[in-house]
């Protein structure tokens, strides 16, 4: 699995901004693991294990798959659910690879990503952009934007049994 300490030491020694960006993404996803609930949906997020990552990395023929997440969601107001996987490759910084698109069971996709500090993840493809901001350990804000204009904003709260 992803060796954060080893990767951080290597990134520090070569001064790679891209490597530090992956480190921040890994930490962001680690802190985001669990069940998040909102008026819109229930979303479960967990890190992929090595076997899952190896299998999924074949979809995009990745050279150096590092880590990834599994997302599952269930909408609150309609009988619909889904799941998808997101993962990154050390050889292709700034990109997130998926096993399918967000829209239905479509083809795998590639998104640009950017970490703003340690608490905001921005993913984008074309004119669509999603911002996920960790407001604290148990609260996050998600925003969907199209051509820069805010389409939807909602708050999610982490469920702690």
Automatic annotation (TrEMBL):
The lineage of its organism: Bacteria, Bacillati, Cyanobacteriota, Cyanophyceae, Gomontiellales. This is Uncharacterized protein. It comes from the Bacteria.
């Amino acid at each position: 699995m992803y060796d954060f300490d080893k990767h951080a030491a290597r990134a520090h020694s070569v001064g790679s901004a891209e490597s530090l960006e992956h480190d921040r993404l890994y930490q962001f996803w680690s802190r985001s693991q669990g069940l998040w609930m909102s008026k819109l949906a229930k979303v479960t997020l967990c890190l992929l294990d090595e076997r899952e990552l190896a299998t999924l990395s074949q979809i995009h023929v990745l050279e150096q798959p590092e880590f990834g997440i599994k997302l599952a969601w269930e909408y609150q107001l309609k009988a619909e659910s889904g799941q998808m996987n997101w993962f990154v490759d050390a050889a292709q910084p700034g990109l997130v690879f998926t096993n399918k698109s967000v829209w239905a069971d479509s083809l795998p996709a590639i998104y640009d990503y950017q970490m703003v500090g340690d608490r905001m993840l921005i993913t984008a493809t074309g004119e669509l952009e999603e911002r996920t901001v960790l407001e604290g350990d148990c609260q996050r804000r998600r925003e969907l934007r199209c051509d820069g204009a805010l389409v939807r904003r909602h708050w999610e709260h982490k469920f702690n049994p």
